[in-house]
Amino acid sequence: MIKIPLALLNLQDDGFHLLVEVVVFEHSFKAVLDTGASKTVFDKTIVERHIGNEQLKSSDRVSTGLGTTNMESFTWQLPDFQIGTFHLKNFEVAVLDLSSINFAYENLSVEPVIGVIGGDILTQYQGIIDYGKMTLTLSMKE
C-alpha cells in the first residue's frame, strides 16, 4: 500500500477539489482526484504539446460531463504514469479538451491541471481517501 499526499483546493465558497501530484512526460503536474469521474482523463492540449496527436486514438464514445453532453474524445496508452510514488505502466486514459476546467482554475490563480484521476484507478487499485490525513492510499492487486 502506498500513501500519496493530497492538497485541498478551496474553490472560494463553491466547494473543494482534491489535487494530487502526478508525473507524466518526466514532468510533475497536478491532477484533480474525482470520485465521480468514471475514467481517468488527460487534457488534450497538454498531451499534444508533448506527443502530438498521432499517438491518440479517436474514440467512438461520446463523453458527457464537464459542462457538455457531447465532446470528441480520444484514448491514449500512457507508457509511464506516476501518482505520488505509485507507478503505472501502459495505462489507458481518455483524452479530452479540459480547457473549461483550466480556465476556471486560471480565474482562481491556480495552475492548470493535466487531468482528472477517476474511478477506474480508484477501483482497480483499491483507493482510500483519508480527508483527516489528506492522503490517498493505493495498492497493487496481487
Produce a short descriptive summary:
The protein is an alpha+beta fold and 142 residues long.
Low-confidence stretches: 63-69
N→C terminal distance: 11 Å
Q: What is the overall pLDDT average?
A: 86
Structural class: alpha+beta
Looking at the structure, the CATH topology is: Cathepsin D, subunit A, domain 1
Our Rg estimate from Cα atoms comes to 15 Å
- Order of SSEs: EEEEHEEEEEHEHEE
**Strand line-up across the major sheet:** 2-3-10-4-9-8
Strand content: over 45%
CATH class: Mainly Beta
Number of strands: 12
| Shape, per Cα inertia axes | globular
Q: Domain count, please report it.
A: 1
Q: State the fourth-level CATH superfamily.
A: Acid Proteases
The CATH architecture classification is: Beta Barrel
Tell me what the structure shows:
With 142 residues, this protein is of the alpha+beta class. Helices cover 16% and strands 48% of the residues. The chain has a single domain, classed as Beta Barrel (Cathepsin D, subunit A, domain 1). The protein has three helices and twelve strands. It has a six-stranded mixed barrel with strand order 2-3-10-4-9-8. Strands 6-7 form a two-stranded antiparallel ribbon. A hairpin with a 5-residue loop joins strand 1 and strand 2. The longest helix has 9 residues. It is globular and about 40 Å long. Keywords: Hydrolase. It is an enzyme of class 3 (hydrolase). Its EC number is 3.4.23.-. This is Retropepsin-like aspartic protease.
